[in-house]
């Protein structure tokens, strides 16, 4: 299209009254946010060209002239007035506009959606935008007029609206008038005669919102999905009254707004009214920061954020040694005077905390004015560049904040105590106060803490308490505590004796976030309280899904169509079906040139996010530009029947397809019903959880999100023995062959030692792992060493594993002789096919003697022995009957640390994987949701209680076809040992998802599970505790530790390869994470944890020794005398010793029963030493094997390991020394010491012959616990004698 203006239309200079303002408007900040996706890559020609397919016209500005190209027909004259607006820009700013090329979309819905572009998207300007779209928002065409609706340009229209505002009467009670997408009227001066106006967004963006906001009427603005260029900067409760889009609270919000307006009609004025709310708060979400300045001298910083607003201060937790920290912490400030909100400022300062001296160093700050605060529905995550403190300071990086205003009465202002000081600091200060001051009267420990904190606030000694706003308030705070205002305590009174001490500890330290929490959800079988299911008033259904909540779905089965009309000029039709409810829609695949297609696809729409009561099933024709509608079938959801299993599936019916004009367009076979996740069609159905954007678009790789059940292959050990060979012939006839045999199965190899001779003997044993079905053969290759690192093949033998013998016990298996084939192709042929008559009878053939068989009496370990989920042998003949059933209900997951982001907002595509025995299960992937609800139930047969169920939570990186091999990231996992579960009890708990990173321990979220273990026979289950843990072969012919670890790794690789061939595949990183493949690698943290475990095991011996020491030192004479009496009784009546010991253990067990664990054990962060590990130790643990670190780091770690090993070596040497001294008593290495010991033995033997043994024990016991006055401070004679005995340390080099 071409438009020509007069040659004098463009002015040559800018007029004086058109000069730029000193400050930019508020909405200019959104320009940087809209073009942020191209910040790093820039905009290339390829990006622009790819955007032509979804654009309506293109504009090129060259040397002050505008050239426009129409790509598609725009609705009415939107493109014309948009170009007209650009011409006005050139006219007002001649010579200021650079050469540009722009693409424009003129529809009412966003087109550049995030999930469609993994890389930078095409830059397309549009009149509206939304959170999950990349459309660049541009001023609406109607600002320059709308000819079709007779709407004047904005400046002229404002004059008419001002005249209408003057005629508005507020003396009567007003009522709301609806004006939004559903109303197609022309905005005139008569539209402003109502006190209230409501803006309701339809299924698309509406251009009418600015006309509603222009009136002096009180605008009730229902929270929209889309936004335009100017509306994002409007202040809620100043320019409009926000209304929630939640159907449950919308009417109450409108009612409260109207009641306030009727009570305050004088405060309603466009652009000036401020709605006075008593519970107005400013919410600040501190999300993350990146690229900060290192300040600790080691290339890192320990960072925290401090927030200042309206005299209140809060701070986040400190992230140690992290230049890109992630907090995800929320704070709420109290707005004391809403009328002053535009003049207030919010300061966010990032500090580095210096642990050595307790100081803090400013890394940068951000200041936000009150005019930029928006309502919660309009708030988005923004990244602000950090400002310098002064011209000489250094600052870089950005901080991500989400700032909003809310009046939700359920949200309470944040308690500043956790940001002030730690619990330990309070206790230390409390102790100092009690030392220096006089002792106060006895009070509870919690009250003491509360009083101390209140006193410290009065003294204003700490930085992060609320700061006084004026001198008057400071004077009031200097008064005695009795005169202080109750509000100064900021909720401290709530922390007094009404709450127990652990609650106070949890408020100051986050350790309690790592524990398992019991819940009481209402599941399909009823409400779970304390492990018992309480049946509700609803009748129990026949469904077996009683460990999950019943989730209602609307199922639509699209079977096929017939007699569809031809739509193209060529008479062809490429049909597909679109099923739509509200903004959620799913589509079938399309068929090329088929008027009777058959799809047989099921769609499942969750009832909880249903947006409409009308179901639309539309048949469309696929076209290159725009798909044509063939016809639609409508269903009223109130009339849809409900199906409950085990009812038979609902029979599909034929429905006539109609267009809007009533014309019949063929028939479509459909079945529509209501059901739950127990429906058999649920597993393979399309789910509305796959919808990424509100416009209904779905993911591109839908097969990757389905829920599936996988069966891992049955594994066998293949035992091979290479005995000997005969008549080997070398290529060099002048020398004897130096032969060796290489045995191979897949990527597993074993090689014998080379033996010289024509008939060598090796007797080499090898052990491999194979999986059913056996695909890889067993290959023997005889090689001759002809030179350095050079082998020549003498012959090959190939044995199919499926044809070798299987052994179930330790009986001997006979081997066989096999002829060696020169070529591998000949060896691959089946044994016995080659006939002897084809051979030269006078010629000798080389052959090899091998023994190969499948050893089915072992259990093949493919996971860590500590977390094994199956202990059965390979052969089925040795399997026992199951002893019970394990049921698992995966309810929901709460992700606290999003593993990725979309459109600047953290998100997750979450799915769960559970493993027990041979059965692996995978839930469906719920896309773009940090709080996914699965409610899927699975069942396993249990053969042994000494097994572990493992469940992992992952983020799916394969939902798009352009994933480019990205790995699924792990969020966390849990383990549950079956033996710790009570039979018949339903365990409903929320488990923390913990992970260890280089920066420390992190809680990524929580997973909510329901678990029940039911046994078939209590007697059989009790009998298992007296049977061997592993199959018999593990004890008759045990495997070495080295072979176990080597074969375990090979078995895991085989399982990962087989599960990766399924559809959808269970990826290798998932199998490795679930199988704990790296548990055998070195870790300083694990070493400390194991040492602490060992110390805890022998801690009772230390306590007994300490108790005996107190008895021997007579610290409590009464107890010591009592011990003397008991000792005499046991010596005189030795028959009472064992019964007393067992009775004592029984009493202790019954006492401990009162404190038995109520929750299943979970990963203990304290036991794992996750909180005390240094970043260097964690970095070493996270390193790959082999290492990828620099040589300096590896050398430093090696030296540290040598130092640690030296200490262990010294301890082992000390233990060996004590043992050698015992041997030296009779070895005559020290003849004098041995002589003394022999004399002592002779005298003792004579005394025992003539003296009762009870007397000897009494004298020995009384000597050990004699009174301190009878003791010497130096060691006794026996100890001195033992320490002088020689050891072998002096003979070591």
TrEMBL record:
Membrane spanning stretches: 1126-1153, 1236-1265
Coiled coil: none
Species, as recorded: Sphenostylis stenocarpa
UniProt membrane topology term: Multi-pass membrane protein
Keyword Calcium: yes
UniProt record similarity statement: Belongs to the MCTP family.
Keywords for the protein's UniProt record, in alphabetical order: Calcium, Membrane, Repeat, Transmembrane, Transmembrane helix
Family annotation (InterPro entries): C2_dom (IPR000008), C2_domain_sf (IPR035892), C2B_MCTP_PRT_plant (IPR047257), C2C_MCTP_PRT_plant (IPR047258), C2D_MCTP_PRT_plant (IPR047255), CAP10 (IPR006598), MCTP_C (IPR013583), QUIRKY-like (IPR047259)
CDD domains tied to this protein: C2A_MCTP_PRT_plant, C2B_MCTP_PRT_plant, C2C_MCTP_PRT_plant, C2D_MCTP_PRT_plant
GO annotation, cellular component aspect: membrane
Domain called C2: residue spans: 263-384, 535-655, 699-818, 867-991
Pfam families: C2, Glyco_transf_90, PRT_C
Name this polypeptide is given: C2 domain-containing protein
Localisation: Membrane
